[in-house]
Amino acid sequence: MRTIDIPRSGTGHSAPITHVAFSPDGQRLATCSYDGTVIVWNTADPARPTELATLRHRRLVNASAWNPAEPTLLATASADKTVAVWRVPERGPAVLLQVLARHTDDINSVAWLPDGERLICVSEDGRATMWSVPDGGFLAEVGSHEAHCMMVSISVEGLVATVGEDGLVAVGDPDRPGEPRRRHYDSSIEGCGWSRAGDLLAVARDDGAVDLLTRELDHVRTVEVSSSAARAVDWSEDDSVFVVGAYDGSLHWFDRDGTRLHRVDDRRVWPRSVAAAHGLVAAGSFRNAPHLYALDDGRELSGPDRATHGPNALAARAGELLVGCDSGTVFAVRTDTAGDRPEVRALDLTDGPILSLATDGDTVYAGTYSGHVIRHDGTTRTVSGQLGAPLPSLAVDGGALVAGTYNGELLLLDPDTLDLRERIEAHGGSVKSLAPLPGGGFLSAATDRTVAAGPPHERDLLWVHGNLVNAVAGLHGAVAASASRDHTVKVGRISRTPDGAWVGEQVQTLLGPDESVKCVGLLGDADRPTVLAGSYDFGLYAWQVDWDDSVGTLASGRVLAEFAQGLSCMLPLDAGRVAVAGWDGRIVLVGQDADGTARIERTLHVGELAATAETADRTDRTETALTALTAEPVEAAA
């Protein structure tokens, strides 16, 4: 397994911050990141946090937890399927003490039992496991979910609470064997947190509310938080206040009775994680550093000072490749010109991440993490209302703009005003990807493991994967391919029956990466297409499909290129070229030789695009100022 290697530029992280955790004394804050690192900050002066140590995993780091009995010990949980335990002294270098390996899937969350010697780890495979830290030994499986287990929280009394995408909340005591107490919800639960006294469990619900439950999981009250999903929750030391992060980038302070005290709206905030300690609140960020707030009034005390430009979405228009980034910037790159430094323009559409892009002529549409659609026609910027969930996919279909949501809905928007026309329940999970079909309709891929085709109201199932589907691509309306977390790509011919239904035929399963496949593209001719797939293992793979030889698909795809982070998205520029982007900022244009063999034609980097766009912007401003200066009339001296 290769290690993420994103060069640092300045202080802090080089990619979004996934988790924040205060040490018991509130003097240090651990932040985890997509860049594969954990940074420990000295927060004694919260207005000027300073870096104490940087810890490294091989993949993105999802969570960390400080030891309640020994405050210099920190556990970190990673997508490299390990949990590491470090000693982080107030002075001197950090020391790796133990590695709990090897878990069967990415570790999403970790928490210490009160004895300070055992850890509970929860992972993408739904399992909750208990480990002995002194000897690194596996002790027991203490719970399981039918879908991804998202978070674990342990009370002061040692009660273990886990929540998952299956809507299950489970509470048990690993020292007292027996069936855990369970409570089921109709939708995903991604966050939970015990009060410091251990008498209440706060559960962050996908519908934007937080439930307060007793130890026995009896309902105490429901607190309405946001129109977007509630993601994370934590309590103050005296349990008088709890803080909730919501998907729309908002943070909410409530008292124990559910009365709202403060609210912060900031699209730079990644509410995947919040933490409270000693009068401070910390929140994750899509930028290089965490946000720190005063617990008593919500004032921001410090925040990030640098954007990260990880590319999440690609689109094309009239010779330009559009790259949508975590920073909220869209870089418009001329791909039809020669030279090492292409012409670049920066469209600063928003402050938060752009998850999806679509174009219609000169008009650009961007779907955001905060649940808004932004329309930019070159002169006017229009922003929709808050649509209730992040928007990972967009497509223009007929007279409507179609947005796929984290909630599994297809939203039909007016393409000019962005007014919401209709909500359609299309999938049982997040609609991760949409791809237009010639003549109308589109392909869709979702976390409910399905790939479908057709117009918005008449979706036809093409095939099913063994795990969530991250992306779908089409070729000439005759071939479709999909990328899944089950480590496979499926490709098949697609066509319409006499009654107009879409069907998939001659479906082949392509085996390549040993990790989740994130994005997919198609090149060439429908009778012998080339499939491209990008993985979390940093590899860009290529297969040339032979419809008459399904046995050959068991062979691994050819590695066309290797990145320094997972690959994020692909875009067909035309039948002969596909653009591929990775979270390390690298973008490659892939073409074909005469025999159909895929090859890299050009390589770009988002960091260089940002520098070029900034230089061009400074030049434009200077030229405008000089023009204005020379155009002013000069009065003759008396």
CA-based gyration radius: 25 Å
Estimate the helix proportion, in percent. Answer: under 10%
Assign the CATH class of the largest domain. Mainly Beta
Shape estimate: globular
Q: What CATH architecture label of the largest domain applies?
A: 7 Propeller
The chain-level mean pLDDT equals 93
Strand count, sense and barrel status of the largest sheet are:
4 strands, antiparallel
Total beta strand runs: 56
Strand proportion, as a percent range, falls in over 45%
Helix/strand class: mainly beta
Protein name: Anaphase-promoting complex subunit 4-like WD40 domain-containing protein
Domain Anaphase-promoting complex subunit 4-like WD40: 194-257
WD repeats: 10-42, 54-88, 100-141
Pfam family, one: ANAPC4_WD40
Layout of strands and helices, then pairs:
Blueprint: E1 17-22, E2 28-33, E3 37-42, E4 50-56, E5 61-66, E6 73-78, E7 83-87, E8 95-100, E9 107-112, E10 118-123, E11 127-132, E12 137-144, E13 149-154, E14 160-164, E15 168-172, E16 181-184, E17 189-194, E18 201-205, E19 209-213, E20 219-224, E21 230-235, E22 241-246, E23 250-255, E24 260-265, E25 269-277, E26 280-285, E27 291-294, E28 300-302, E29 311-317, E30 320-325, E31 329-334, E32 344-348, E33 354-360, E34 363-368, E35 373-376, E36 381-383, E37 393-397, E38 400-404, E39 409-413, E40 420-425, E41 431-436, E42 442-446, E43 450-454, E44 460-464, E45 469-475, E46 479-484, E47 488-496, E48 502-511, E49 517-525, E50 528-535, E51 539-544, E52 558-562, E53 567-574, E54 577-582, E55 586-592, E56 598-605, H1 606-631
Antiparallel strand pairs: 1-2, 2-3, 3-4, 5-6, 6-7, 7-8, 9-10, 10-11, 11-12, 13-14, 14-15, 15-16, 17-18, 18-19, 19-20, 21-22, 22-23, 23-24, 25-26, 26-27, 27-28, 29-30, 30-31, 31-32, 33-34, 34-35, 35-36, 37-38, 38-39, 39-40, 41-42, 42-43, 43-44, 45-46, 46-47, 47-48, 49-50, 50-51, 51-52, 53-54, ...
